[in-house]
Amino acid sequence: MRILLVEDDPDLTRQLKLALADAGYAVDHAPDGEEAQYLGENEPYDAVILDLGLPKVDGVSVLERWRRGNVTTPVLILTARGAWSDKVAGFDAGADDYLAKPFHTEELLARLRALLRRSAGHAAPSLSCGALRLDPRAARASVNGEPLRLTSLEYRLLHYMIMHQGRVIGRTELVEHLYDQDFDRDSNTIEVFIGRLRKKLGADRIETVRGLGYRLAALPGEDAA
């Protein structure tokens, strides 16, 4: 899952980038509204964390421009505590949730998880696909109750696929949501990670749809979710 963090405070940026990476997300950063607008319009993010008080272009204006341009990525806005008018302006511009500064990082991560679940049509805090279970709160997965040992990239790939289970996902899409902007991307490495996941999940749980991509699905006799 790939997140755009839009924040101009260097200390808060470092803190949030570390927390988001530890939680299993690929993170891009924009320090001002101008860069944020460009990235949001040209890169496929799963969610955006958007500070409203930004240099060059304020956060509300950025959000308004995204929505006018049909950018539908879920957005969590950050506002100054007590600035209720900023919250209203953010929601009216198209925000999906807000968090007032200062805040606990754990609350931001919880709100982000909820935002991602809602955007993908999931209600429960944990995700399931047959006997496969994934807990985004702990960044852990299991099959039939047996914990899986996953690398950070394997977990990130599985997280994205289980969020979009049942749908064929192309290699390019997986690359775009697996790596941050600065990573040297190679779509061929997806095959390697898919192979590793099959060894851990069972060979039949991830289907190859020739010429199109991959589909994660429950095995026959299992409930899909």
Explain what this protein looks like in three dimensions.
There is one protein chain. The protein has 225 residues and is α/β, with parallel strands linked by helices. It has two domains: 119 residues, Rossmann fold (3-Layer(aba) Sandwich); 90 residues, Winged helix-like DNA-binding domain superfamily/Winged helix DNA-binding domain (Arc Repressor Mutant, subunit A, Orthogonal Bundle), CATH 1.10.10.10. Helices cover 41% and strands 21% of the residues. The strands form three sheets. Strands 2-1-3-4-5 form a five-stranded parallel β-sheet, sandwiched between helices. Strands 6-7-8-9 form a four-stranded antiparallel β-sheet, with helices on one face. Strands 10-11 form a two-stranded antiparallel ribbon. β8 and β9 form a beta hairpin. α3 packs parallel to α4. The longest helix is centred in the middle third of the chain and has 16 residues. It is elongated. The two termini are 20 Å apart. The mean pLDDT is 92.
